[in-house]
Amino acid sequence: MAVTGGGRGVGSRRPLVTVLGASGLIGCALTRELARRPIRLRVVSRRDFALPSKPVAELEARTADLLEEGALAEAVAGSDAVVHLVAHMVGVTRWRLDEHDTVAERVNLGLVRDLVEALRDTRRPGARPVVLFAGTISQVGLASRPRLDGTEPDLPQGAYDRQKLAAERLLKHATREGVLRAVSLRMPTVFGHEPHSAAPDRGVVSTMIRRALADLPLTLWHDGTVLRDLIHVEDVARAFAAALDHAEELSGGHWLLGSGRGEHLGEVFTRIAAAVSDRTGRPPVPVVSVSPPDQAEVTDFHSYEIDCSRFRGVTGWWPRVPLQEGLERTVQTLAEQCRVPDGPARGGPVPGTRGA
After folding, report:
1. Residue 86 near residue 112 (C-beta atoms within 8 A)
2. Which Pfam families match (predicted)?
3. pLDDT tens digit string along 22-38?
4. pLDDT reported for residue 193
5. Residue 300 and residue 138: Cα distance in Å, rounded?
């Protein structure tokens, strides 16, 4: 049975879908997507954020620190499906974690362990709740070929990727035990803008757009030929919704999301500079190569592009937002948010800037 399909769930009861980490970029987009469906939707975050207006779903918002004892079990109680979007990322370096960062390990791995135990203890007899887990394609490490399809061996390089892989494996084991039905969606570079997100997106695309809006050069840690697969957050939200609809077929596996096309980062940055120029009327900012910082990892210089045909074959999902359209929309919304005027360059620092 589909978790979020057109019916009302088991008998006359609408299924309850709980989104953990609902105030982030993906969480906000997914909340908006799922709010259109005839379900009960519980959104959980550490911060308050604006909820969709006129939802079809029965919408419940909770504010909670999931690290507090009993908070996670309370948040997911009674859930037919849980979407786990919580992750610990540090400062402007985001996923570049110190090996001895116990808080990061507690969030990225410990919360998944707690989730499994909470569902084991509270699930209804015979029920196997669905758990959607937000993974990352970098869990694979240095693959032998840039185009990934999900069959590659996992050899993660950094602490963040190792924690995400360990969490994914915990969920797969719980699936084999019959406790739940886990689906891991491994994502490439996600970009876009959600105006109601409680924290600004600090991914590479948004960071470089903010630099260009401030008339600062866009910095690469290499010659610009490294490939990245970029996917708009609205397409990611639709993918998670599709995974809920096909949870039984997807259960127990990891599935790759992506546009299916690798883009040279140098060209992406050039397009960002041009899109910002079109918005502001100023000349495009330069794209320059700089020496990589100490926190750079070997995967920063490794190309990735995604073959998501396995996921598409099961769900029918396919990304709809073209890269150029997504970039232009993100430039527009960030420019409005920053209230950047048209006209001469104004300069100045941008918080959270980094290269790529």
Report:
1. no
2. Epimerase
3. 999 999 999 999 999 99
4. 86
5. 10
Residue ranges in 55-190 assigned as alpha helix (H): 71-76, 102-105, 111-122, 159-177
pLDDT of residue 60: 95
Parallel, antiparallel or unpaired: strands 305-306 and 147-148: parallel
CB contact at 8 A, 221 and 265? no
* CA 280 vs CA 115, 213, 269: distances in Å: 47, 8, 16
Token pair 């406790």: residue? 179
| CATH pick for 16-198+229-256 out of 3.40.50.170, 3.40.50.300, 3.40.1390.20, 3.40.50.720 | 3.40.50.720
DSSP-derived 3-state class of residue 253:
coil
Q: Which helix (H) or strand (E) holds 134?
A: strand 130-136
pLDDT in tens, 110-167: 999 999 999 998 777 778 999 999 999 999 999 999 999 999 999 999 899 999 999 9
Q: Alpha-carbon distance 113 to 305, whole Å? A: 30
Residue 216: which of 154, 149, 286, 269 has the closest Cα? Answer: 286
DSSP string, 176-205: HHTS-EEEEEEE-EEE---TT-SS---SHH
Distances (CA, A) of 66 to 76, 84, 295: 11, 12, 29
CA distance 215 to 283: 9
pLDDT for res 346: 39
Amino acid (one-letter) located at 224: G
Residue ranges per structural domain of the chain: 16-198+229-256
Q: Residues of the chain whose pLDDT is less than 70?
A: 1-12, 89-101, 198-200, 339-356
The pLDDT of residue 196 is: 72
Structure confidence at residue 12 (pLDDT): 58
Residue entry with tokens 């009960």 = 40
Residues 278, 213: contact at Cβ < 8 Å?
Answer: no
Q: In whole angstroms, give the CA distance from residue 286 to residue 270.
A: 8
278: left (phi > 0), else alpha (psi -120 to 50), else beta? Answer: alpha
pLDDT of residue 20: 97
